[in-house]
User: Fold this.
Amino acid sequence: MVTLDVESVQAFVMVADLRSFTRAAETLGTTQAAISVKLKRLEDRLGFRLIERTPRLVRPSVRGAAFLCAARDFIAAHERAIAGLSASPRRLAVGFVDHVAGAEFPTLLARLHAHDPALVIEVRIDVSRNLIDAFDKGVLDAVIVRREDDRRDGEVLTQEHFGWFAAPGFTWPEGTPLRLASFAPTCLERIMATRTLDAAGIAWTETFVGGGIPAIVAAVSAGLAVAPLTFRVAPAGVVEVGKELGLPPLPSSEIVLHSTLTDARSRAALKILATAFREHRVV
Assistant:
């Protein structure tokens, strides 16, 4: 009968999730050598290789990927048993800037829950400024926001790249202000776009303001205006028209994770969330 130990299975799941022995060791508060020993012990007990490792790539093997779901269930059962010893459940309050929480958002939360089913996840979606205020006041344990000021702390997850998007065939009559659709007056996209246009000496007028991404997308798709959007959220049916219209390029924006959590389990959960976030951005 094959018996499994929690630490070995946890090491495998962490390496499979983070695709890195180094990050797995950092997250679990141990060394790469210890992770390798635990993984080798688990592979010997199961009788097959779980992780394929090359100088440039770490990933589950075919059989490792098949075992991963059962391994998660094994860890989850252990976590539930441990959680049952505590009178109060573990809570993680996380804030996401509204424009960052895209179509992959449910997948990110599912990945986090699969990693630690005993974790009670509370989610808040808002603009960056409100989330940072809540984080600084201790209302939120962690936030994923756009860097909008000179604040330099936090872990940079990725960069968002912006473009000028409009419906195919959008026209900008010569001698008239550029028709602009933008978000709320305090949002990053509007501030960035209007400052860029002003610096280039391009006259503009807002024909549609506010309403969130769906409303802005609708206005752009209808051919009413040009909008500053990230390439990630730009919908099908619109095109980037910056070069065609002679508009100045828009600066990119950093997506940053802020957290004050110090306990190993919460930091491990955030590592999983950050890794999944990066993976989806690459895809």
Summary: The chain has three domains: 6-86, 90-156+254-259, 162-250.
